[in-house]
Amino acid sequence: MTRTSTDRNRLLLLFALAAAVTVFTATVPLLRDWFDLRVYHGAVTNWIHDGGRVYDYRVPGTPYGFTYPPFAAVVMLPMALVGLRTAIAAALLLNLAALAVALRVLAGPGRHRLGWYGVALAACVLALFEPLRDTFSFGQVNVLLLALVLTDCALLAAGRSRWAGVGIGLAAAIKLTPALFIGLLLVAGRRRAAAVASGVAFAATAFAALVAPDASRFYWTRALWDTSRVGRLDYVSNQSLQGVLARLGVESRPVWAALAALVLCVWAWRSRRAAADGDWPAAFALTGLTACLVSPITWVHHLVWLLPSFAVLLRAGHARVAAALYAVLCTSVVWLWFDDASGVDGFLGGNLYTWITLGLLVGLPAGHAPDGVRRLLGRSASATAAAPTRAAPVIRAASAQPGPPGEAAAAVTGATSGPDAGRRRSRSPSSEPTGSSRPAASNPQSSSSRASP
């Protein structure tokens, strides 16, 4: 088959796949009508032009308003200078750019092998992912935050940690969920990066307090603790541990706290081991999973934090598992239990995305550094081993001359002379220690059913 005919067949396949994706997105998941973006735009416009307060604004006809920290409102101030349509266009472009950054980090060195055909296929597959398509059609900020956090992941994986933490700090100042990545830096022993992230988050929050002191005071003393401002805990879109408990009718905060603490222990253990092995992609993926689980409210579109987990699965050779789980997250299946999540089927099906997140937290392959990181670690080790020492001539001589193992070991340790040399040569090699014995509304798909900023 010629190259021309191969390219023609690929184009036909892409057109067919794009048509199928278009039909699917036009019939199964209705667009969200940029609802969350209308919240952002309305809140900052009301604040700047109408003299209102950020957290008093409500989208007309709904009880939903702005729920992010004040720094997010400060960052979104440029929207007050343009109309809603322009804000929508800008949000689309920003989300596309952020998605490109995130995918570049997740693909790693392998991105160069994709080519135009692989990129086009990936775009079609990504368009089906429910959390991602909801993020775009709500006008949400999740992908922007993911790109900021993954930028730090790339810096740490490449050994360029001077600026690591800036992205995490900015993301945590815009929305609280990414603050768990500061915890990752701490458990991984990256205190400097953790200090940078904390400092950036604090500085951004302090700047917002200077710009909007009343809004800051209200948010940190009242709005932050009022989950009713965000939505109902038992709403089927809430795929967190708290959401599962709420749908079971369990309102005990100690029960939720105990489950969250258990999840955090598993996360700290697994992510620390992954980071110690240089597997930063897996450590960041585990942290994204955990943030979704322990957050009181994790709407379906917040599950874009699962994307790094699928990249880790593919890298580890578990393409079938990744494809199966990804397919489930494209189906909107949890909405089948929108009206009634009771019974065994409701418990299993209505919380299916939560079970997937939990399964990934426990079973995600971790501790296998990507090739680029292994090469970096290998260069560091070889550079260290190549440092000149006084014993170097002896080591080279010992390695070049055949002889009993005991003499070779003595040469490496520098024990070829001295009063105890004879005794050391007489010992068997096994007698010396060695280093050889060292992982809600009536229509759940309607654009106006609820806000989830």
Describe the structure.
Mean pLDDT is 81; it is low at 372-452. The chain has helices spanning 3-27, 35-48, 70-75, 84-107, 115-128, 130-138, 142-157, 166-174, 180-187, 191-211, 213-221, 241-248, 253-276, 280-294, 307-315, 319-328, 343-349, 352-363, 371-385, 392-400, 405-412, 421-426. It contains 22 helices and no strands. With 453 residues, the chain is mainly alpha-helical. 61% of the residues lie in helices and 0% in strands.
SSE topology:
Blueprint: H1 3-27, H2 35-48, H3 70-75, H4 84-107, H5 115-128, H6 130-138, H7 142-157, H8 166-174, H9 180-187, H10 191-211, H11 213-221, H12 241-248, H13 253-276, H14 280-294, H15 307-315, H16 319-328, H17 343-349, H18 352-363, H19 371-385, H20 392-400, H21 405-412, H22 421-426
Helix pairs in contact: 1-5, 4-7, 7-8, 8-10, 9-10, 10-11, 13-14, 14-15, 14-18, 15-16, 20-21
For this entry, give a set of tags.
453 residues, mainly alpha, 0% strand, disordered C terminus
Summarize the model shown.
By secondary structure, the protein is mostly helical.
- The stretches of 5 or more residues where confidence is low (pLDDT under 50) are 372-452
Beta-strand residue percentage: under 5%
User: Can you summarize the main beta sheet?
Assistant: none
Helix-residue proportion = 55-70%
Rg is 27 Å
Task: Name the structural class.
Answer: mainly alpha
Distance between the termini: 51 Å
The averaged pLDDT comes out at 81
Principal-axis shape: globular
**Number of DSSP strands?**
0
Task: Sketch the topology as an H/E string, one letter per element.
Answer: HHHHHHHHHHHHHHHHHHHHHH
